[in-house]
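Archive record:
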Amino acid sequence: MKRHFKYINQLFFTVLTFSILLFSCKSTAHSSNSSFDDDVIQIVETMTVRQKIGQVLMMNFRYCKASEYNGKKISITDFEDASGKIVKVVPLTALNQTAIKVLKEYHIGNVILFAENLTDTAKAVTMTSQIQTMAKANSDLPLIISVDQEGGRVNRIFQTATFPPAKTIGATAKPNLAFTEGQYMAEQLKAFGINLNFAPVCDVDSNPKNPIIGDRSFSRDPQTAGIFAVEMQKGLKSKKVIPSAKHFPGHGDTDVDSHVGLPLVNRKKSDWLNLEAVPFKMNIEEGIPVIMTAHIQYPGLDSSKVTADKTGKSITRPATLSKKILTNILRGELGYNGVICTDAMDMKAISKNFSESQAVIEALNAGADIICNPISIIEKKDIDRIEKMYSEIEASLKSGKLSKSRLDNAVLRIVQLKKDYGILDAEYHLATEKDFKRARIILNNPKYYSFRDSFK
């Protein structure tokens, strides 16, 4: 009887062990989709390749070439087109036929707006509502509509109270003010139909010669910068606006503006971990849903080279195009599992060195999910450049230069983010006078002005 019981016992544990191993194998096999909801996986599985490519792109329609603009040309400015030629453009405050064609035919999943798009409240609300209703009518997913609204010199909306720069907030030693600012900015952005804000800035103001960060940083102290950035993150999330920490791995110690050149940071990884990495780690622990990359060379983190197809030169990989920085360090070592969005790819740090297609493919391979501003759309002929880029991305998928699983993983992250923040399930309609009135009431709320004036 004892021997019989012992045999049953051994059999039980053998079956249990086998079941655990089998379950582990299944878990490993499906681990890439384990953090995504079943309906999100189903949505992505039904997408065409072009719909998937559209989902990872974040386009801007900031300007329109003056010769193609039908309305009254109120403000004409110079713009450098893709060929380096200076052309006359006007701000785009209403979708034109070129923008509509790009959004519909290329299944664009994300848009970034600028001050030029937002000068008129009614027109801006109309634009965002048209973008969303058009996507739904086209059987595409609703879009992430984003903006850079940090406070200080990086403001895109001026029909309401604008808030002081991060440095001023950080100097108060009152992190709750960053939370309040995040809440108020979220309310203002939602009035326009904007659902993602490229804030908080997590850069540490460690270089007084830095021409691009400076007072956009909360502090020279990494812990302080992290604490205030976390509070702004919480404030934005409390109002269901997506926050985005930037600019990973840290833009604070540069002396070159990546809008005009490619900055280089010479710092050891051990030093980076104790300085620039700190605010990002703190925000990751708090659940930051999006992190934006920096177009900077950081050989202490990745000294590998890439051949820039525009120049033919072998250069140190910018962080935006570095798998070691985005996948091995950000995802692997820091444990980040959210969406990675590039900084604008039309900035000179990237566009001077890489073609549009190479930049997109390299960024996706590195681990980026959303590619911001791969092409600036200002005229009809820019559609040819979009078609060329899509065709070359498709070719890279066929050749294996870009894996289908990497593209799918990026799309899964984006669609999950849209679900998590209610973008997929929201009701969309073309804006009416009632919507314009509501937006103006929100933007004129006295509490925003009281908050702003408290810093004077």
Remarks:
- The radius of gyration is 23 Å.
- Residues 259 and 409 are 29 Å apart (CA to CA).
